[in-house]
Amino acid sequence: MCTSDPVFQTQKVYDAIAKDYAYRNKTPNDKVLHSLQTFADMLPPGGRVLDVGCAEGRETEWFLQKGFSVVGCDFNDTFIRMARKRCPSATFITADMRALPAHIGTFDGLWACASFLHIPKQNALQTLQGFKAVLKPGGIMYIGVLKGTFEGMRENVKMGWAPRHFSDYEIHELNGLLHEAGFEAIQIIDSPRPGTALSFLNVFAKRAN
Predict the structure, then answer these.
(1) Structural domain tally of the chain?
(2) Which of 55, 57, 58, 163 has the fewest CB atoms within 10 Å, measured from its CB?
């Protein structure tokens, strides 16, 4: 893999901060819980969910507790080891979301909270088309991204973490991308992050065909 790839660079940062990241994000906040429940309500009971960018398995655990069958996917081996320990009844794979392996099968829902936002925009369409390929017809997708026009390596001075790649989106840009990838937007919720100038876009969409 090319070491100049921003996804690879970001993966290496997560490898270095994995324990600190997991500690700071060990339980979902109220906004994430609301998105989780909204997403779950769109799925059939006991349905199959792919948690893309599952990290240490925080949301994987939530889906399991709600009775779903879950496969967690992350590009970082450290996170996968942590997730397997946290959720021994789930299945986990190490994979780049830009090229999901075909052997994982198909799903009723795909959840990608604060993970798709690390994909460069030049790879965004192929990534979403890959998401569509692993969803059943009519399957539901959730992605969470930051709102805006920024794309590049973003520092986190507050946490003292090395720069990671982020691709921010405006709502009209997301709508166009979803349509091109074969999705119908159900709703896009603009959710400002308290105490910051940032806003999070919670995107719920359905596989169109």
Answers:
(1) 1
(2) 163
Task: State the pTM of this model.
Answer: 0.95
In a domain, 1, yes or no: no
**Residues 6+ away with beta carbon under 8 Å from 150:** 166, 167, 168
* Whether pLDDT at 1 is above 50: no
Q: Are strands 48-52 and 107-113 parallel, antiparallel or unpaired?
A: parallel
* Neighbour count for residue 140 (Cβ, 10 Å): 26
Residue matched to tokens 């081996």: 77
Q: Is the pLDDT of residue 207 over 50?
A: yes
By the 8 A CB rule, do 87 and 60 touch? Answer: yes
CATH of the domain at 168: 3.40.50.150
pLDDT in tens, 23-69: 999 999 999 999 999 999 999 999 999 999 999 999 999 999 999 99
Both tokens of 69, joined, read 């069958």
